[in-house]
Amino acid sequence: MPRSALVSERIGQFFVGEDRLEYTEYGAGERLVVLLHGQLMLRRMCQPLARALAAEGMHVITLDLLGHGRSDRPADPMVYSMTSFGEQVVALLDHLGADRAVIGGTSLGANVSLEVADIAPERVQGLLVEMPVLDNAVEVTLMTFGPMLIAARYLPISVKAVRAITRQVPRGLVPFWAGIALDTCDQRAAPMAAVLHGTVFGRFAPSALLRGRIAAPTLVVGHPADPIHPAADAAILAEEIPGARFLRAKSILEWRFWPDRLDAEAISFVEECWGTRPSGRRSLP
């Protein structure tokens, strides 16, 4: 993983009702960026991009949404939905005393970013979304996460066994993304089932009509050969949002293992959102 300039990193927490949410803060300043993780994953997956943005002077927050990472994990499926996740991001901005931020994320995080733009458009300085899950992914998403929901609800011993096995692997001895995969396996059956029930069988994202009303500058990143996150969904989203730009990654692995090109595009986009780089539009590959 490429090295970024050293920036300050601090862990914080806040509450939404009785639920505690935890976040990491990189850098400081007024140019705020919030990055959100994928389904069942944790905020540490956003660390490489957060550090790259913070090294360029951005103030970056990575958040563990409810039911994920080190945030609370209630076992009630009624508390989980894309809209409630979006409300948690707005609560984070309130906690930080921030009027606006560039909101971004991957997969689940991309869809939550769209929810924030729908429910609180005045808080969104820009959208940086990778691998949104929209209409073309419905069937594969159900096929992927449906069995996981059944296992968590009716065979909880399977989730407990995976957790016990993966916890034996020292995180410091494996590569960064292998550690992220191991941490993603650190689930508890009841909260895992609740998260999947509330997200997979609820509203995936704002409707196409609502997406077409998003006015924030938007960069959509998609890539081929990924049935859960079809490039077609990303391309369609870029067409739906007025003025949005579509950036095609070479593969799902590019931003994980060879991030320089996409990091540079993300940095440039965020700088444009905050008015610190000329906003001349250019076509992206």
Write a structural description.
It is a single chain. Helix 4 (138-154) runs antiparallel to helix 7. This protein starts with 8 loop residues before the first strand and ends in a 12-residue tail after the last helix. It has helices at 47-55, 82-96, 108-119, 138-154, 156-166, 176-184, 189-200, 208-211, 231-240, 254-257, 260-273, and strands at 9-16, 19-26, 32-36, 59-63, 101-106, 124-130, 218-222, 245-248. It contains eleven helices and eight strands. Helix 1 (47-55) links the parallel strand 3 (32-36) and strand 4. Mean pLDDT is 93; it is low at 279-285. It has an eight-stranded mixed sheet with strand order 1-2-4-3-5-6-7-8, sandwiched between helices. With 285 residues, the protein is an alpha/beta fold. The protein has a domain at 9-136 and 203-273: Alpha/Beta hydrolase fold, catalytic domain (Rossmann fold, 3-Layer(aba) Sandwich). It is globular.
Summarize the structure.
It is built from eleven helices and eight strands. The protein has 285 residues and is of the alpha/beta class. An eight-stranded mixed sheet has the order 1-2-4-3-5-6-7-8, with helices on both faces.
Strand and helix layout:
Blueprint lengths: L8 E8 L2 E8 L5 E5 L10 H9 L3 E5 L18 H15 L4 E6 L1 H12 L4 E7 L7 H17 L1 H11 L9 H9 L4 H12 L7 H4 L6 E5 L8 H10 L4 E4 L5 H4 L2 H14 L12
Parallel strand pairs: 3-4, 3-5, 5-6, 6-7, 7-8
Antiparallel strand pairs: 1-2, 2-4
